[in-house]
Amino acid sequence: MKLSNRLNTINTLITESYDIIWDCCCDHGFLGMAILKRNLADKIIFVDIVPALMADLSKTLTRFSCAQTAKQWQVKCQDVGCLELTPSAKQLVIIAGVGGELLLKLVQQIIINNTNHDLSKLSFILCPVHHTYSLRKGLHKLGLGLVTEQIVLENKRFYEVLHVSFESEQPISSTGTIMWEENNTAHRMYLCQLIKHYTRMINKDPVYFQNVLNDYQQLVELKT
Ligand SMILES: C[S@@+](CC[C@H](N)C(=O)[O-])C[C@H]1O[C@@H](n2cnc3c(N)ncnc32)[C@H](O)[C@@H]1O
Fold this sequence. Notes:
Elements: H1 5-13, E1 18-24, H2 30-37, E2 41-48, H3 51-64, H4 67-70, E3 73-77, E4 91-99, H5 100-113, E5 122-129, H6 132-141, E6 145-154, E7 157-165, H7 185-201, H8 206-223
Parallel strand pairs: 1-2, 1-4, 2-3, 4-5
Antiparallel strand pairs: 5-7, 6-7
Helix pairs in contact: 1-2, 5-6, 7-8
The chain binds S-adenosylmethionine.
Residues 7, 25-27, 47-50, 53, 79-81, 96-98 line the site of S-adenosylmethionine.
Organism: Pseudoalteromonas porphyrae
Protein name: SAM-dependent methyltransferase
Pfam family, one: Methyltransf_18
């Protein structure tokens, strides 16, 4: 099965092994299955809130598992916000394909619910649909730092993929830093789209959206 451009980018950002990788809001589970094939974690845990999806995924995984790989995956049907992380394990939590506001809420809940654990070995790969600016601000506020970030174009839509952790001391900027490639036409198009979008939003909350706009316009100035 061929992964979409967006899911493939997330997959390639995983360059080290983990005790546990959580494929959250996994839906069909394509991403987790690709990670399972790469043998990158002792356990891949698939999580989604829809029972029928998780029942289908369990069947598919069982069909393709041998005695060895059967121990390497688990399916949980639950709210991602209620994840119970494993204390002291090196864990990667992936959340992709949901709105930026929900995504931030889920990350906040995971952290609050697991504050008793040492979170230094925890990192997240996140790919929201829209609202990346407010997500980035929220992640920074939580004390997370940037590991890496990329812009992905899929079906004429732009996405930002962020790898963040508590160990990284590189601040997460609201508009992105290392993901912007100079002279990349698609990236310029994405920046134009963001500026047009936030210009349209100004009337809704002039003070907030003017600040957002100023931040993106500063990027344009840096690039010209
Ligand atoms: C569009 S799919 C994303 C699938 C895949 N991660 C991707 O990026 O292609 C969004 C999934 O998020 C799940 N979801 C939404 N809110 C959730 C929550 N609070 N906890 C668990 N799953 C959730 C939905 O059931 C749905 O299957």
